[in-house]
Each structure stands twice: as structure tokens, then as C-alpha cells.
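Please check this:
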Amino acid sequence: MTGPISGHSVAGWGWAEYLGALVEEFGTLAAVAWKLFEQGGGDDDVGSIERALRRLRTKRQHDGGIWGDKLLACFGMPRSIEDRLVWMGVYHSLFNDLPVAICTDQLRLWDFPPVSASPARVWLLLCAASLALRRRDFAGARVYYDRVAAAMAVGRVRDEARIEHALMVAYLESRTGPDAAQLAALESAERLLAAATLSVGDRACFTARLVDSWAFRDNHRSREAEAMARYRSLPVEDVHPFASYRREAGLAYGHLWADDRATAHRHARAACDHAGDGGYARLRVMGLILCARTDEPGAARVFLARARAMAARLGEEELAGRVERAAVQLGLG
């Protein structure tokens, strides 16, 4: 069965698509079979392997059996596909700005073989954990992060996955766990980031997230000056809108703590601009809350109303909670 618009299988990305990606890379299905044979096809000749692969095409998103396992062990997940999964799994991607219900639907489409049978399933688990956090289901998020750790222990995964896991575990521990667990996760993220091979944009985003996590810890221990110094250490170049948002939002908070509301408001407005330029709706909500905290009551009420409406349109319980807590703290509830 195919979709009426795209013509693609409505079942999602399965074995036929996986083999199609390999054929595109190696030229023919026979060439893929030869590669498997050279890697150790057992007692099967190339012709038998090719016939097995043709049968595998018909399995859609079901268990791929022995030949599915051999394909994944030999070729892994095509980079073009794993890049989509990374987009779903990292916090600083625009995927997390989609409504929770839409993200959940996308996760369901991908959570089948061959993806769920490969090491790339770690991104599905990270995605599921992030969605649990957005629903404030901390217990559920912990279950998924434990499964990520188990998957990383037995399979090869990209540097981004290990850093993402460490940062998000640090976030979870900062809300629910002991101090030592948060500290260990942050130190792990720092080591992983220092040794990782990343794109310029990802490095900027991960660095800004790590600084933000350390600063959150500082601020909650009355070390506001240390937190401000961390944000000031971030590069002023606008390498990526997410990283720039984090820098400006952190500086806004620091100046607000120092009772310099005018400067704080200027940084809060800059944070909103970076969020908008990057298409980050959730960050823009948080930026609007910052603007409310740094402005006069009349303007603050308007900022909060905009933030409340955006959170509702996103179906975002966690963000809606932030708006209401800010309203109460500002006496505008």
C-alpha cells in the first residue's frame, strides 16, 4: 500500500528502503551480496545471498532474521538515515520544537526494524526520553536513559549520542537525583565533548548546553557570579542560533541577578531574536518569559500572555508550567 501523495509505503522506512540505500551506494543488489560474501557469508554462495536479500525486501518492518542481522553488522545504518535519527534525538534540533503529539507519531514510524534492530536505535531511545521530559514524566525518562546506557555499552554509537546522553542525564539528575549523580554526568559530558569529532554547529550547541548546565548548578548554589562568568566565556560569534540563544539568555539572567534590569532586558530580547531566527518556538517561549521577568508589570503581562499562547499551541505541559510559575512569581498569576 502506498501513500496517495508521495507514493511511498505508508508503513515507514523498512528493509526494502534499507536495501535500496545500499544498492544506491554499491550499484546493484549483486554487489551488496558480494560484499556480504566477502565479509563471511558462511556456506552460502553469492547467488544464494542475493536471493535471500530479495526475500528480505518483502519483510517491510518485520524482524529481518539472520540476513537482516548480517546486513546491519556489515553495513550499519546509512549516514543519510542516521542523520535523520540524530535530528530526532538531540535536544538542540528543531525536532523538539514540534508539538509533543507530532514527535510521538514520528517516533512510532521509525521504531521498527531495521532501525530498531541496529545500534542507531539509541537515537530513538534518546528521542523517547526527551519526550518523557517534555511531559514531566521523570520516571519514564530515567527508564529510557538507562536503556540508552545499555545500548551504548554493547554497540558503536556516534560521539553525539554519548554527549547527548550525559547532558540529559545531568538535567534529569538536577531535577530528581542526588547531587553527586548530576556532577558525575556533567563531568562525563565535559570529557566526551573535549574528545569528540563534531561539526562546528554541533560543537557550539553542545558547548553552550554544557555551560548552561554548569551555570544552572552554580545559580542554585548562590554562585551567580560564577554562572555569569561561564556565560561570558562563550564565543560572541553567532555560529548557531541555539548556542547564541543560550549565551544571551544566560547573560540576561545574570544581569537580572545583579539588578541591572535594562541590560538584562536587552539580552532577553536578543535571546528571543536568536530563537526566532533559528525557528525555535520553545526557546522563544522561554525568551518571552525572560522578557517578562526583566520588564515592567504592564509589559510583562503581555509577554506572558504571548508565551502562554505559544505553549498551548505547542501542547507543551512543561513550558506551560514555566509560564504559570513565572506569572505567580511576578504577581501576575
Remarks:
- The mean pLDDT is 92.
- The CA atoms of residues 85 and 284 lie 24 Å apart.
- The longest helix spans residues 200-219.
